[in-house]
Amino acid sequence: MSHINDTIVALATPPGQGAIGIIRVSGSNTIPIVNELFRGKDLTKVASHTIHLGTIRDDENKIIDEVLVSVFKGPHSYTKEDVIEISSHGSQYILQKILSLLIKKGARLAKPGEFTQKAFLNGRFDLAQAEAVADLIASENASMQQTAMKQMRGGFSDEIKKLREELIHFASMIELELDFAEEDVEFADRQGLIKLINKIQTLIQSLIASFEYGNVIKSGVPTVIAGKPNAGKSTLLNALLNEEKAIVSEVAGTTRDFIEDQIYLDGIAFRFIDTAGIRETDDKVESIGVQRTLEKMKQASLVIYLVDLMNDSIDSIEEQLQGLRKSSVPSLIVGNKVDEAKPELKALLEDENAVFISAKGKVHLDDLKARLQAIVAETKSSSEVIVTNTRHLQSLQQTDEALNRVIEGINMEMSNDLVAQDIRSALFHLGEITGEVTTDDLLENIFSKFCIGK
Ligand code: GDP
C-alpha cells in the first residue's frame, strides 16, 4: 500500500545530546527523496545494506553537513520498506535543517512509534514484540532489558501461539460436532476436552502469575522500613543508601542519575517509601503505636521490620510480632543492634526467621540484602516468560474467564454452539496480545506511547 505521502522521517536520536545525530527515513520514496539532497554515490544505484559518505546540500547547493547514509532496501529493513539512516553531526541546527529539507522533498514527519507501527503492519513482528521495543528503550536495568529482549525476540509470542493452536484444535472438534448436530454424534470426548482446557489454563495462569514478578522488574518493590522510634530505621536506611551511592558513583561516566531512596539488588529496585517519616528525627518522643505503623505498611509490598534488641522489652516485642502476623504484607523481621543485644530479646526472634544486624556497625547487611532478594525470587513464577504489560495481563485474564465458561458449559451440558462461542471469545482475547485481532484505537494507544523516531 504505497501512496505519495507514505514516506516518513524523524530524528532517531535526541537532538543536541550526542556527537552524532541520526535521521531515519522510511517509505517507498525514501531513496529518491534522500538522493535529491545527497551528493556522493547515486543512491538509486547502490546495493542494500551499504554505507556511503557524502554531503547534504540545500537548494542553493550550500553544504549543510558531511554525512554517512546507510541504505536498507525493503523488505530487509526494520519497517520492511526502503529505509535510510543519515548520520550527521549532532548539532540541533544541522539536524533540523536536514529534517526540513527532507520534508520539503516530500517526506512527512513521523508520529511517535510510527516506524515500529509500520514494522508491525508489514508483518515484521507481532504486537507483543512491537511493544517490547518500547520496553527495551525504557529499560533501566539488567532484568528489564533481559525481559524486554526476550519478548522482542518472540519468546512470549511463541507461548501465546502455542496456546492458540491448542485452542483452535479444541474449537475444531466442537465445531465438527456442530456440523453434525442433527445426528447427535459426539466426536470429542468430554473428559479429554476438559483435560485440554485445564492444561491451557495452567499455562495461562502461570503467565498471569508472572506479572507480579514482571511488575517488580519494571517498577521495583515498594519497601517500607518500619519499627518503633529509635529502633535504628534511619541508620539502616542511610547505611543502605550510602553504599548504593558509592557503587553508583564508582561507575565512571554513568548516565543513570542516582535515584533517591532506592537500591538495586541483582537488577531489582527496592524503592524505600515513606522515608520522610523516618528522617524526621525530631519527634522521637511521640511513640508511634503499632497500629499506626501497620497502617503505613499497607502501601508497601515488602516491610523491613526493625526490632531494637538493645532497648526494647519482651512484652513490647511480642506485641509488635503479633501485629505483624496480622498484616498481609510480606515482612522481614530484623533484629537490630546485635552488637549490644540483650540475649532474652534476641531469643524472642530466633523462631521468627529473623536477620540479625547492626545498622550502625554495618554488620550483616549482606545477609539482609540476600534475604530481600530471596523474598523477591519467591514471587518468580514457574513460567520462563514474564508478562510485564498490563494490556497483556488483561487479555490473559479475559481468556482465562472465557475458558472457565467453556468448562462450565461442558459440565452443564450446554449446547455446543454456546460452548463454541466461549471458545471463540478465548481465542479473540489471546489474539489481542499478538495483534491478530486489533482495532485502530488499540494501535493508536500503543504506539502513541513510543518515542518519535522509533
Ligand atoms: P529510628 O528512630 O528508628 O530512625 O532510629 P535511628 O536510626 O535514629 O537510631 C536510634 C539510635 O540507635 C541512634 O542513636 C543510633 O546510633 C542507634 N543505633 C542504630 N543502629 C544501631 C546498632 O546497630 N547498634 C547500636 N548499638 N546502636 C544503633
Please characterize this protein's 3D structure.
This protein is of the alpha/beta class. Among the domains are: 8-110, Gyrase A, domain 2 (2-Layer Sandwich); 220-357, Rossmann fold. Helix content is 49%, strand content 16%. Strands 3-4-5-6-2-1-7 form a seven-stranded mixed beta sheet. Strand 4 and strand 5 form a beta hairpin. Helix 4 runs antiparallel to helix 5 (142-152) and helix 6 packs antiparallel against helix 7 (190-219). The radius of gyration is 29 Å and the shape is flat. The two termini are 21 Å apart. Mean pLDDT is 85; it is low at 251-258 and 281-287. The structure holds guanosine-5'-diphosphate. Guanosine-5'-diphosphate binds next to helix 8.
Q: State the oligomer.
A: single chain
- The CATH architecture of the domain at 220-357 can be named as 3-Layer(aba) Sandwich
Task: Evaluate the radius of gyration.
Answer: 29 Å
Q: How does the overall form come out from the CA principal axes? A: flat
Number of strands: 13
Distance between the termini: 21 Å
- What is the CATH C-level name of the domain at 220-357? Alpha Beta
CATH superfamily of the domain at 220-357, please? P-loop containing nucleotide triphosphate hydrolases
Question: The CATH topology of the domain at 220-357 is what?
Answer: Rossmann fold
- Uncertain runs: 251-258, 281-287
Indicate the percent of residues in helices: 40-55%
Main sheet makeup: 7 strands, mixed
Give the cofactors and ligands: guanosine-5'-diphosphate
Backbone structural class: alpha/beta
SSE pattern, N- to C-terminal: EEHEEEEHEHHHHHEHEEHHEHEHEHHHH
Mean of residue pLDDT values? 85
Q: How do the strands line up in the largest sheet?
A: 3-4-5-6-2-1-7
What share of residues are in beta strands? 15-25%
Tally of helical segments: 16
